[in-house]
Amino acid sequence: MSKIKPAPLPPDTAIGGYRVVRRLSSGGFGVVYLAIDAEGQQVAIKEYLPASLATRAPGELLPKVPPEKLSLYRLGLKSFFEEGRALAQISHASVVSVLNFFRENETVYMVMNYLEGATLQDFIITARDLKTQKVFRESTIRSLFDEVLRGLRIVHQHKMLHLDIKPANIFITDDNRAVMIDFGAAREVLSKEGNFIRPMYTPGFAAPEMYRRDSQMGPWTDIYAVGACIYACMQGFPPNEAPQRQEKDRLSLALNKLRGVYSDNLIEVVEWCMALDPLSRPQSVFALQKELSREGERRYTKLSVAEKMRMQLDTLVSDTKKNVQKVGEATGLGARPK
Ligand SMILES: Nc1ncnc2c1ncn2[C@@H]1O[C@H](COP(=O)(O)OP(=O)(O)O)[C@@H](O)[C@H]1O
Ligand SMILES: [Mg+2]
């Protein structure tokens, strides 16, 4: 994989009737620009430019693709185009709007409405740094994910899966709307070739079936990621990776520590969404929406002081064991817990 990211188009470049204002972000699959249309309206434009397949020197318009990567590049391009077209049919406040789609510079551009605000990831980091007892209030989490799920339901109705739901792909606008972005076009096709597997999933948010080639993905795969996002909103950091959980699952332990802070019902929702077995999760967004909207039935387990201490002790013991093991592995002495 090339280490240098392709150079973004410089400000003032004209593409498909739009004018680039500046780059907003460079990711593994391409570059997102702030641009303006002929009427002076702001738009966001995503350019297909996978860093592992193409390079572009500063000041150039056309990406350079080595001959051996050309077929994969074209396959990804086609998929980016197809998925963009599918996304363009969806009109929902919680799904980023695709306004236009065009080919130029031997690549493809997706024009979206420009969102002002910050990603949920930015909010989580800010809230976590404030070190309050709760990262987000329960009512905030419920209404936020109610919005996300409304959008996701429509996406699934259009026979699409998002497959990379995570706080960095949920945008919170300045007027307080939650909008799903980054429908990671091209992800699925490219992953089949093997060498593109890495950007396909995000540790902690990717369901176990995304790590296996033989298993079926479906709405339950996005639902796992939604559960992981709710978890991140409660804890301030992502849950353990699915393969790690399959070895030793600490999810319930981690969630138990949040009892009393968040309702038992919300904790159960997260556990349900994040079941390792896809069949044990909500099978549709609708099923999850129903559960998440059961506001009236909030129960809180109040932990006694003794229980809280017991939990802290458990963490201490398990952390100590882990450290002993790490030292053992690092020194080649093996673990010798007393
Ligand atoms: N429609 C948009 N409006 C404003 N900013 C956007 C928009 N789409 C993407 N961005 C910005 O670009 C970043 C990357 O976009 P994303 O679609 O997640 O691509 P990737 O993660 O594949 O690079 C986002 O985190 C966000 O900051
Ligand atoms: Mg993204």
How is this structure best described in words?
This protein is an alpha+beta fold. The chain has two domains: 14-113, Phosphorylase Kinase, domain 1, CATH 3.30.200; 117-297, Transferase(Phosphotransferase), domain 1. It has ten helices and nine strands. The strands form two sheets. It has a six-stranded antiparallel β-sheet, with helices on one face. Strand 5 (98-104) and strand 6 (107-113) form a beta hairpin. Helix 3 packs antiparallel against helix 5 (219-235), helix 3 (138-157) runs antiparallel to helix 9 and helix 5 crosses helix 8 (264-273). Bound molecules: adenosine-5'-diphosphate and magnesium ion. Adenosine-5'-diphosphate (ADP) binds at residues 24-25, 27, 29, 32, 44, 46, 96, 112, 114-115, 119, 168-169, 181-182. Residues 27, 168-169, 182 line the site of magnesium ion.
Please tell me what the overall shape is.
Answer: elongated
CATH topology of the largest domain: Transferase(Phosphotransferase), domain 1
The ordered H/E elements are EEEEHEEEHHEEHHHHHHH
Total of helices = 10
What is the arithmetic mean of pLDDT? 86
Our estimate of the beta-strand percent is 5-15%
Main sheet strand line-up: 1-2-3-4-6-5
Considering the protein shown, what is the CATH homologous superfamily of the largest domain? Transferase(Phosphotransferase) domain 1
Please indicate the count of domains.
2
Oligomer: single chain
CATH arch. level architecture of the largest domain: Orthogonal Bundle
Structural category is alpha+beta
Cα-atom radius of gyration: 22 Å
In total, the number of strands is 9
- The CATH class of the largest domain is Mainly Alpha
Q: Describe the largest sheet.
A: 6 strands, antiparallel
Q: Poorly predicted ranges (pLDDT <50, ≥5 residues)? A: 192-199, 327-338
Helix content: 25-40%
Bound molecules: adenosine-5'-diphosphate, magnesium ion
EC number: 2.7.11.1
Protein name: non-specific serine/threonine protein kinase
Pfam families: Pkinase
Organism: Diaphorobacter nitroreducens
